[in-house]
From TrEMBL:
InterPro entries, per the entry: Rv2466c-like (IPR053977), Thioredoxin-like_sf (IPR036249)
Domain of life where this protein originates: Bacteria
Protein name from the UniProt record: Disulfide bond formation protein DsbA
SUPFAM superfamilies (UniProt xref): Thioredoxin-like
Length: 190
């Protein structure tokens, strides 16, 4: 199974934590990869370019994600823990803390290095190709099926975690299935 995430997305963080819960209950080989909300935003003419957002640019965490290589899953979990769950603000501060905790402070310069952008785009394109560009993150690929979501407001536990996965895969496996959605109520529970 592949999970495509952007570290700045709270729903991607919740999806990773949910699939980690599934992995405690079922044999699951989870490969975490990057997609990019910055890349998706390039198609929106009304969206402010990421280049004007400075240290808050969505490019910075995904560049670091490429730089950390095989430790991407850990990076996304640590970034999400600080940024989403603990509410630490200033993406640069979160990056600094995460890289320090991972003993990878030397990779901090990757945040501002556009030479990582091609790798971000390759991973993003690979993740989005089977689902289209009208979705965001998370995107899951499993057993030849790819889909956006599920967008979760909390991490399901135990049998609920398994049921959510099985239901999502079953729906996505039906060739005529396109979308299932309802309005989110309440805040997110990390």
């Amino acid at each position: 199974m592949r999970l495509y995430v952007d570290p700045v997305c709270p729903f991607a963080y919740l999806a990773l934590r949910w699939l980690d819960e599934v992995a405690t209950l079922r044999d699951l080989d989870l490969d975490v990869r990057l997609m990019s909300l910055a890349v998706l935003g390039e198609a929106d003419p009304d969206r402010e370019p990421e280049s004007v957002r400075g240290t808050e640019s969505a490019w910075r965490p995904v560049r670091v994600g490429v730089a950390v290589g095989p430790r991407l899953r850990e990076f996304v979990l640590r970034f999400g823990g600080l940024y989403h769950a603990e509410g630490v603000r200033g993406r640069d501060e979160v990056l600094r803390r995460v890289l320090t905790a991972m003993d990878l402070s030397s990779l901090r310069a990757a945040a501002d290095d556009p030479s990582f952008d091609a790798a971000v785009r390759r991973s993003h394109d690979e993740g989005m190709a089977p689902v289209g560009l009208e979705v965001g993150t998370p995107v899951i690929h499993v057993d030849g099926v790819a889909f956006f979501g599920p967008v979760l407001g909390a991490v399901p536990r135990g049998q609920d975690a398994l049921d959510v996965l099985d239901g999502a895969v079953a729906l996505a496996s039906y060739a005529g299935f396109c979308e299932l959605k309802r309005t989110r109520t309440g805040g997110l529970s990390f």
